Each structure stands twice: as C-alpha cells, then as structure tokens.
C-alpha cells in the first residue's frame, strides 16, 4: 500500500517537472488582428529586446522585409561585437495568420520560427514575440522605423506590453552607436 502511494507521488512529481519544463516559454494569445505582411514590408530597426543568449553580442540589428514576385523575403542583419562583423540571415515568409508570421531561413535552426505580432502600426513601431528552441524564456522584440522609438510610438508600445504583463524594465536597448556600414543586399 505504501509503495503505491510512493509511486503515485513519484509520478506526480515527474509530471510536474515535465510540465514546468515544457511551459517555460509560452507565447501569449495576441489581441492583434488582421496582420498584413505586405503592409509590414519595410526596414525595421530593432530598438529593444528581452536580453537573450542568441543576440548577446548584437548591436545595429535590423530586418528588411521586401515584396518580391515569389512573396515577401526578409534579410536580417546584426553587427556581432565579438567578431566585429555583420551576421546576415536571409529567409522568406512561409506563412502568415491574423497575428503571426513564419520565417524560413534555409539551412538555419533557431531563427526559422513562427513569430506572434502583439502590435504594429506598419510605420513607426512593431512588437513581436516568440519562443526560440534554445531559450527557455519568452522573447519580445520592439522595432521602429529608425534607431529609436518616437515618443508617441513608445507610449503605444508600453500600453501594448501592459496587456501581456510585460515589463518595460525587462527590456534592454539595442545599441545603434558606431554602426559600421552594413553589406548591401543582393
Ligand atoms: C558572435 O560572435 C561570437 C564569437 O565568435 C560567437 O560565439 C557567436 O556565436 C556570434 N553570434 C552569433 C549569434 O552568431
């Protein structure tokens, strides 16, 4: 009898540990609706992010979404301050929903992913979230049409973050000082 109790307790504990591990990064249900990738196609400067290992050395980070006859492509660049060179990632938008988009970067692991849009005005700000395979916590990126959010955009972004209980102070600013000239797109 006592062994049964112990077995149940062990199973319960194991389930609990598995569940908490699996639930470390959970993308919130976005209230944003009607995401339009063609309107979104522009150069987005990353201005704030939740600090994370994958972007640890990155400054001067931006993504250029552009319309092509084959669909929307995306070229991401970031200056790696550890190697003093730009990292480049080229991909395509493989799918979208009313508030998500999926990027496929051929031959690349972690950034080929589905991202959830928490808000954008397609012009001055964008708030995107997602979970990366190698990182347990929820990541959020705030992008703008230049190296800084305008005061109006910052107010709007803060209101969006509040909906999801995301704290402004959990974000780090992406440095845009002394950015070397990035390579040009093919
Ligand atoms: C940046 O450079 C460092 C040092 O070479 C390297 O370990 C790291 O992987 C690079 N960052 C990325 C994400 O490519």
Automatic annotation (TrEMBL):
Cellular component GO terms held in the UniProt record: cytoplasm
InterPro entries: Calycin, Invtbrt_color, Lipocalin_ApoD, Lipocln_cytosolic_FA-bd_dom
Any one GO biological process: response to reactive oxygen species
One MF annotation (Gene Ontology) recorded for this entry: pigment binding
Keywords for the protein's UniProt record, in alphabetical order: Disulfide bond, Signal
Signal peptide coordinates: 1-22
Domain Lipocalin/cytosolic fatty-acid binding intervals: 43-177
Superkingdom classification of source: Eukaryota
Family: Belongs to the calycin superfamily. Lipocalin family.
Matching PANTHER family: APOLIPOPROTEIN D, LIPOCALIN_CYTOSOLIC FATTY-ACID BINDING DOMAIN-CONTAINING PROTEIN
Name this protein carries in UniProt: Lipocalin/cytosolic fatty-acid binding domain-containing protein
